[in-house]
Amino acid sequence: MAGYPAWDQDSARTIIAGLAHLEGATLPMLHALQDAFGYVDPQAVPLIAEALNLSRAEVHGAISFYHDFRTAPQPARIVRLCRAEACQALGCEAVVDDLAREHGIVVDAAQAGDAAVETVYCLGNCALGPSALVDGELLGRVDAARIAALCRHGRAHS
Questions:
Q1: Angle, vertex CA 130, rays to CA 127 and CA 134, nearest 5
Q2: In which family does this protein belong, per the annotation (predicted)?
Q3: Is the peptide bond before 73 cis (omega within 30 degrees of 0)?
Q4: 88, 80, 96, 74: which is closest to 135 by C-alpha?
Q5: Which of 4, 44, 92, 144 could potentially form a cystine with 98 if both were Cys, beta carbons 3.0 to 4.6 Å apart?
Q6: What is the pLDDT of residues 39-66, one digit of tens each?
Q7: What is the spatial distance between Cα 132 and Cα 139, in angstroms, rounded to a whole number?
Q8: Which residues are bridge partners to 115 per DSSP?
């Protein structure tokens, strides 16, 4: 994601060493690494394991269990598309299908380029669904063309 420095092993070691004294330090380390780099690079797994005398599997298990941890840099733009019941009733699944068929954008797939579309469940904008959240802006009555434009142009207003 824009604004984060590139992964740096020496900086990661410094972050890990600074938190190793904490009881239950795995999660604070993972959060600190993600805060510093925007994601937890897989190269951090053996560093954390060594610092805390854990197996690599235990560290990897913590990363994979908590869905907020990311193991790769994030795209510059993430469009969060609501797929909860109210938005389903207002056509969000047709939007998902149209995105794939007409625009080549697969929801919840690995990023392609500098944007990604992710599923969320309820943005609290049920009466104006399908809804999306882009750059902190809540959008109602979105369709596939608008979401595709958001992914291409990097603006919440297309």
A1: 110
A2: Belongs to the complex I 24 kDa subunit family.
A3: no
A4: 80
A5: 144
A6: 999 999 999 999 999 999 999 999 999 9
A7: 5
A8: 77, 112
